[in-house]
Amino acid sequence: MIKAGFTFEHPLTKTRLTVLESDAETNGMGWLLEVTRKARAKPDIAEHLHMTWTETFEIVSGTAKYSLDGIEKTAKAGESFVVEPRHLHIHPWNETDEVLVYRQKNRFEKASPAAVQDVLGIFATGAGLVRDRKIPKKGYQKLLQQAITVRTLIRHGGYTAKPSIFIQNLLGYTLGTLAAMLGYKAVYPKYVES
User: Fold this and answer.
1) Residue 127 carries which DSSP code?
2) pTM metric for this prediction
3) Do both 102 and 122 map to the same domain?
4) CA 92 centroid distance within chain
5) Which of 57, 84, 107 is the last residue of a domain?
6) What is the domain range of residue 39?
7) CA distance linking residue 114 with residue 168, whole number of Å
């Protein structure tokens, strides 16, 4: 279970996430993260949208690049921006030689402790699988791990920009179900234990 204070780092991008508020502090209404991105850190989450979540990003230090509805923008320390539901976006990345630190606040339309744990767990599991070299570069294992992850995100209203939502639903529910039957998980307990 992910609680406030839980921290992990992605082994490739060296992005560090610290959970400041989890479902216990928000009554299941979302989370608050502090994210530290190294110099020249490219985006590590693809363009996506949330059907019912609002995300607020506050730049603590450094300069962030981000994308909102396909338009690249910049935000500096002390500035913030809001991503309303159903708007395509890419989380802040760093094109400078300085470290970028921002806070990411997610708020849901209605309480869902499971969404908080699942989505944060997907982030931590992804980093853990890469660190442990358990995600092959290609092949059916990678496809099945992605399918179970997509299925879980869909359950909570999260979609990538491509392919279409219809195709993501189709693949998430068919391949995701197969992946679950074969023992794949979107969140592995060993990566989320606080």
Assistant:
1) H
2) 0.93
3) no
4) 12
5) 107
6) 7-107
7) 21
Q: Considering Cα of 118, then 121, then 127, then 130, what sign does the dihedral take? A: negative
Cα(57)–Cα(113) distance, rounded to whole angstroms? 21
Residue length of the chain = 194
What is the end-to-end Cα distance of the chain in Å, rounded? 7
Q: Are residues 87 and 71 in the same domain?
A: yes
Q: What is the pLDDT of residues 149-192, one digit of tens each?
A: 999 999 999 999 999 999 999 999 999 999 999 999 999 999 99
Which residue blocks in the chain are alpha helix, DSSP H? 23-26, 113-131, 140-155, 165-181
Q: Is the dihedral of CA 140, 141, 144, 149 positive or negative?
A: negative
User: How many helices and strands in the chain, by DSSP H and E?
Assistant: 4, 11
Q: b/e per residue, 29-59, with b = 16+ CB within 10 A?
A: bbbbbbbbbeeebebbeeeebbeebbbebbb
Residue type, 38: K
Main-chain phi, psi angles of 25, to 5 degrees: -80, -25
d(CA 133, CA 168): 26
Is there a single domain that holds both residue 48 and residue 98? yes
